[in-house]
Amino acid sequence: MAKPADTRTAGRKPAPKATRSTAETEKIRAALAARRDELRAEYDQTLSEITELQRDRLTDSAGDDQADTGTKTLEREQEISLANSILERITQVERALERLDEGGYGWCERCGNPIPVERLAAFPSATQCVTCKQLEERR
Ligand SMILES: [Zn+2]
Predict the structure, then answer these.
(1) pTM for the whole thing?
(2) Beta-carbon neighbour count of residue 24 at 10 Å?
């Protein structure tokens, strides 16, 4: 069973207990870059959907009643907020890539252990390993 965390060391920034190999860093970089490309494609897709909705609104609004217009406006607003959240995620991934270059990325801020590549690829903004995250959520 896991021992409770030593409170005397809490708050102190843990030094990395392990070093990451260049190969592993490259793996993280590739995973992040792939994620960024994926998000960019998603963003482009959303933008073209917004453009399409906008065009629909302009071209076939003649027969629309107020409800139709309202629905289209709502759809467009939802698409825009979706686009914005994708853009935010792209920014997160780009920041992660910058931090990776500086060597300050991918280490758990609680225990100092390296965060697994798979987790970083899925959650580029992750700052804790799964174990620490679960411990924190249980509190
Ligand atoms: Zn940890």
Answers:
(1) 0.72
(2) 14
- Separation of CA 135 and ligand 1 centre (Å): 9
In CATH terms, is domain 22-58+67-138 a member of 1.20.120.910? yes
- How remote is the CA of residue 115 from the centroid of ligand 1, in Å? 7
* pLDDT tens digits, 3-20: 555 545 445 555 555 678
DSSP string, 21-72: -HHHHHHHHHHHHHHHHHHHHHHHHHHHHHHHHHHHHHHS-TT--HHHHHHH
Domain boundaries, the chain: 22-58+67-138
Q: Which residues of the chain have pLDDT under 70?
A: 1-18, 61-63
Taking only Cα atoms into account, the Rg of the chain, rounded to an integer number of angstroms, comes to 22
